[in-house]
Specification:
By secondary structure, the chain is mostly helical. Helix content is 79%, strand content 0%. It has three helices and no strands. The chain has helices spanning 7-34, 40-59, 64-74. It starts with 6 loop residues before the first helix and ends with a helix.
Length: 75
């Protein structure tokens, strides 16, 4: 007799820990896929902002200085 220290009492905690690690790893993978640096969403939002800025400059809504300052701020 092992006085309460058999494989089933300790194994349950290890299994729970292993499942938690797998769940955290899966969530981290999904987050990295969605929020990866340089994703197309980031590029498209920058190009959309640049296009809008160019349209406003072409219509005469902003001056050349404002256009250049806005482009500098947008990066």
């Amino acid at each position: 007799m092992m006085y309460g220290w058999d494989y089933s009492s300790v194994g349950g905690w290890w299994m729970l820990l292993a499942m938690a690690i797998v769940a955290v790893a899966a969530v981290a993978c999904v987050w990295l896929i969605v929020h990866r640096p340089g994703s197309t969403t980031e590029r498209s939002s920058r190009s959309a902002a640049d296009e809008l800025l160019r349209e406003r400059f072409a219509r005469g809504e902003i001056s050349r200085e404002e256009f250049e300052e806005a482009r500098r701020v947008l990066g």
